[in-house]
Each structure stands twice: as structure tokens, then as C-alpha cells.
Amino acid sequence: EPTAPSTGSKREHWSGQTAFILAAIGSAVGLGNIWRFPGEAYDNGGGAFMIPYLVALITAGIPILFLENAIGHRFRGSAPLAFRRISRRAEGVGWWHVAICFVIGLYYTVIIAWALSYFFFSFDLAWAGDPAGFFNDEFLQLGEVGVGLDFVPGVLIPLAAIWAVAIVVLALGVAHGVEKLNVIGIPLLVATFGVLVVRALMLDGAAQGVEALFTPDFSALTNPDVWIAAYGQVFFSLSLAYGVMLTYASYRERRSNLTGPALVVAFGNSSFSLLAGLGVFATLGFLAAREGVAVADLEGIAGVQLSFVTFPAVIAQMPGGQWFGALFFASLVIAGLTSLISVLQSVSSALQDKFGWTPRRGALTVGLTSATLSMLLFGTTTALYVLDVVDQWANQVGIVVGAVAMIAATLWFGRRGRELARHLTVLSSVKVGRVWLVVVNAVAVLLLYMLVDTTVRLATE
Ligand code: PFF
């Protein structure tokens, strides 16, 4: 058994259950809720999407969240160490998760940096009447250069700032850094975002926007792609198969209720997604009414376009738009930071467990390496292109591989299924048993199917 100093009885821990719950919600609630969920729901059946979404949540999201909680808590380690304790040959599964986190950290930071710049731009509506031109040409300087290595100072400076914050938070450790960030950040996020949504719902045209989002198209239910989108959304949104929830669970006290808090996290995360759906589509409804078009005719209703082109356009046309903009981009920054920290902690924790490093050394190593790489890759004019490709492969193929490998290593080859089921039951408020095991096995089969489907699609695109 590898026993590095930080993994024994002295393993860091959260100050309590609430702190853990807030940190896990912090990881789950991120850009995926604000700019991914509403667009996915709209594109995949609107109101009818709630059916595959709930099915995915119940049949895969919650069971896998339980699994990660059980593994991290039972084997008391970051992903590589926990899997190594299951079987020497499984350590690689953990490093796979860590590698994906490392990659995601590189570009998640960039988006937070953009949002930070836009927070400041909001106050004087820097993009004036041309948000798209401002974003592409002035801000990212994509203009004539296209793909190249020209550094863009407007992006580099906020990027450096975000990395500095991340390194400090990680270096302070689980209880003093990660936990503090979330205990302050999550309530603050709920407050800022709540105000934003209420304001959005009072805009002219809000009702049409919300109606466009929730009008059900039941024919979508027979389309397998809609179901794949639902499972993909649930995995990404609950930060599953990244080793992140597993790592967070490894910092819980030995005697912990595992299933109850996991359910709170899942419920909180989905509630935030719904709230975001309301807010985003109410705002889009306002824009459509302004422009005299139907919501269906709007472009840029998700992702980078939504946040950095469409929203700025709305903000410029809205009374008090500056404040709306500031609240929106502040929300993105907070939601993003708390997710970012979880991904980086997963990497740092793995290195601490492997080499017996202190949190500080882990933070500096991960932070400085990633900061340099992310500035080289994304502080330059190649940004948008790299972002897209990396995002698709890491999030659509990488994590499905990671999820299947995790299940295979614990339940199929490691044969730890019953032990984990028992572990989940002993101290937990919500008891799971055989059914849970059957469901997790079934999920793995489903994921294998998704994997083939997505790989073929991405490779032929
Ligand atoms: N769950 C986050 C979101 O929905 O934005 C994204 C994320 C965070 C994914 C952390 C993976 C992760 F490890």
C-alpha cells in the first residue's frame, strides 16, 4: 500500500458536511448550468427534454455520483491512489481522470478570464453596437491573423489573475482554501444569479422566451441523439468521471452520510440549471421581441456565443443593462472559479498522494505548469480553434472512457461492488442495495454504446 504522508490518518478534511456539500455543488454548478443546459434543452425537445434529462439523472447521474462518493471515501485517496488501492493495475484509470482534469483546467480558466474582462467591460458597455466584432476582432484579435502565436494582452492579464487566485486557493488547502471559496462563493452566486433571473423575467418578451424553452416537442423522445445529449449533460454537469467528486469525497470524515449529501448536490445542481434556463430564455425572449423575430430565429443561444456576443447585445439594449451585465459576468466568474478549483484540486491531490507533497507544493506545481501552458495556448490568437477541438474530445470521448474504466475497475475486475454497496449503506440516510449495483452495471453498457456513437461522429465531422 502506498502511504504518502498526506494520505494516512492526517489526510486533510472538510470542516463538516455542509462545507463538503457546498464544495461539491460548487464543482457541479458551472458554465455547464448557465450556458450549456438551456441550449441543450431547447435544441433537444424543449419541455420534453425534461424527461430524458430526469431519466439520465436518476439512472446514471445519481448512481455514479454515489459510486464516486463510495470509492473516494472508502479508499481515502485522489483518483490514482483510490484506484490503486482497489487494484494495482487500476491506478492508470485514476491518472486518466487526472489527465482530463488537467486539460480542462487549461481552457476553463480562459473562459473565466474572458468573463472577468467582460465584467469590467459591462460598466461602460465597451462593445457598443457591435458585440460580435468587438469580441472577435478587438478582444480576441482573431481578425486577419487567424490561427497564430500572437499574444493578446487583453486576454493574458485576466488569465494571469485567475491563475493567481487559483494557486492561492489551492495552496491554502482543503479546509482553508477550497472550502472557504465555496462557502463564500456559492451563496453569493445564488444571490447574484437569483437577482439576475428575477430581472430577466420582468423584461418585455420574457414570457415568449420561457415558452420557447419549455414548449415540448415530444417527437424528440424517439431520437437517440436527444437521449445521448441528456446523458452527456448530466455527466458534465455533475462533474462525473473526472475524479473530482471522488477526490472531494476522500476528504470527508470517516463516519459520513454518503448518499444524503449526494442527493442534495444533485438536486441543487438541477435546480440551478432550471433557474438558468428561465433566466437565459427570458432574456432571449426580450431580444427576440426587440428585433421583431421569433426566438427560434435567434442565433448564438448557447456557449461562447451566448455569453460573449448575444448577451452583450441584449445588455446594450436594456435599461440598466450595465448592472445586468455586471451581475451576469460576475455569476460566470464565480460559477466558473468554484468548478475550476475542483478540477485543479483533483490534479494537485493526485500529485500530493503520489509524491507525499504538501498542498502548497501541489498547488504551485499544477498551477504554474498549467498557467504557462494555458497562456501559451489560449493567450494567443489560436484560442477559439483549440478550445473547440479540445472541449469536444475531452468532454465527449475522454470522460466516457473514464466512466467505463471506473466502473470496470471497481465492479468488473476489482470486484469491489458489494463492498462499496455496503459502504454506501452503513452510515447513509438513503439506503442503496443490489438495485444500485445493477443500475451502475447497466450504465456502463449504455456508455459503451455512446462512446462508439460519439467517436464515429467526431472523427467523421
Ligand atoms: N460541472 C461543471 C459545469 O457544469 O460547468 C463543469 C465541470 C467541473 C466538469 C468540474 C468537470 C469537472 F471536473
From TrEMBL:
Can you say what this protein is called? Sodium-dependent transporter
Q: Where are the transmembrane segments?
A: 19-38, 50-72, 93-121, 151-174, 181-202, 226-251, 263-289, 323-344, 364-387, 393-414, 435-452
Instruction: Report how it sits in the membrane.
Output: Multi-pass membrane protein
- Please tell me where this chain falls within the complete protein, as first and last residue plus total length: 18 to 478 of 553
Per the record's keyword annotation, is Transmembrane helix included, yes or no? Answer: yes
Phylogenetic lineage: Bacteria, Bacillati, Actinomycetota, Actinomycetes, Micrococcales
Q: Where in the cell is it found?
A: Membrane
The alphabetical list of record keywords is: Membrane, Transmembrane, Transmembrane helix, Transport
